[in-house]
Amino acid sequence: xxxxxxxxxxxxxxxxxxxxxxxxxxxxxxxxxxxxxxxxxxxxxxxxxxxxxxxxxxxxxxxxxxxxxxxxxxxxxxxxxxxxxxxxxxxxxxxxxxxxxxxxxxxxxxxxxxxxxxxxxxxxxxxxxxxxxxxxxxxxxxxxxxxxxxxxxxxxxxxxxxxxxxxxxxxxxxxxxxxxxxxxxxxxxxxxxxxxxxxxxxxxxxxxxxxxxxxxxxxxxxxxxxxxxxxxxxxxxxxxxxxxxxxxxxxxxxxxxxxxxxxxxxxxxxxxxxxxxxxxxxxxxxxxxxxxxxxxxxxxxxxxxxxxxxxxxxxxxxxxxxxxxxxxxxxxxxxxxxxxxxxxxxxxxxxxxxxxxxxxxxxxxxxxxxxxxxxxxxxxxxxxxxxxxxxxxxxxxxxxxxxxxxxxxxxxxxxxxxxxxxxxxxxxxxxxxxx
Length: 435
Hints:
Layout (H helix, E strand, L loop, with lengths): L4 E2 L10 H13 L9 H21 L6 E4 L2 H21 L3 H4 L3 H11 L1 H6 L13 E5 L4 H13 L3 E5 L9 H7 L4 E5 L13 H14 L9 E5 L11 H4 L3 E5 L10 E5 L25 H37 L8 E2 L12 E5 L5 H11 L1 E2 L16 H7 L1 H4 L2 E5 L6 H18 L1
Parallel strand pairs: 1-11, 3-4, 3-5, 5-6, 6-7
Antiparallel strand pairs: 2-8, 7-8, 9-10, 10-12
C-alpha cells in the first residue's frame, strides 16, 4: 500500500521532530508553575521570559509586547475584544492599567478618554452614537475574526464595515481608507488568506491609517489601530513588524510545525488594551491562566527554524505547486477547472493552490481522494463541521458556483516531487469519477 499524501498544511502542519523533543525536554526540566516564587518556579519563569524574547526577536518587537495564547483563534479574539474593552475602559477613566507610567501613552490615553469630545466635533458623526466604536474588516477573514465581529455587531456593541476583496482575492487598501470614520478604533485584515492564499497589502493599509490620523490631527498613539491575523503568513512571508506597521498581530503554532494549542498575540505598547479573562495575573495581567511552558518553548523553536529556511522553502514549495498546476492543466480535466484568486508571484502564498471545478460536490470529492490516499480540503477546517460548509471566501472571489465546488491544496516542508506527481494523477482520477 502506497504511503498517504498530506496536502492540507493550511489546516495544520505536522509537528517537527526537533520541536517534539524540545517540548518533551521542557516538560521534564521545568515542572514548576512559572508564577511560583520558590526556586523551581523562578527558573521556570525565567525560561518563559527567554521564550518570550525569542518570539519577540522573530517579529523584531519588545518582549513585553508578546502575549502567549492557546493559538490563532484565541489570539484573534483577544485582539478584538481587548481593543474594544480597552476603548470602553478609556471612555470611563484613564486607568493605571492603560497609562502604565509612560508619558507618550499618558498623552494618548487622555486623548482617547476624551474621544467623545474629539468625535463630537466631526460633522459626520451623529452625536448620539459617538461612543459606539467602529471596526473595519473584510468579508474573507478567518471565522475566528469574521464571526466574532458579527456577534458584536448584532449585539449593538460595535458598528462594522466588511470590505469585499477584488476579483483577484485581495482586500485593497484604498477600500479600507474609504471606510474609515472618526469612531473607527480597529482595522482587522489578515496577512494571507487561509483558503485561497492571497496576500493582503498590510503595510499599505497601515500607511493609509497613518495618513488618516494625520488628516484628523491625531498622533500614532491614537486610533484607529491595525490588527492582522498572520497565522498563514509566518512560514513564508516577511514578519518584521517595523516594516508591516501592524499594531496587533496573531500567530499560531499549528501553522509553523510547532505544537498545537499554543500561539501568540503581539500588542504594541501604545494600544489601549484590556484583559478579557479574569482569574489570574499571568501574561502581565492580559491573559489569565497558567502558561503552557513546554508548548511555548516548542513554539519559539519552531519560529526560529522557520526563519532560517523561509526563502529557500518558499521557492521549493512554489516550484512543486506550479508543477502540480501544469500537470492538472495538461490532463483530461485541464479545461474544466479555474483558479480561485491571483497567481501573481508575491500576491499569493507559494504553497497554496485553490481550484474550482463547477458542478462538482467538493466535499464528496475530498472523501473520494481520501479513499485514494490523498488529504486535501474544500473549506477551512473551522467550517467543515458546519451543516452548510460552503466557502464564503471562494464565493466572494469566484461566485456561488464555486463556493461548494473548490479544492484547497496546500503544500509544506515534507512535500516531495514524487508526492506531487502522484497527487496530480489522483486528483484527475477523482474528478473523472465525479463528472
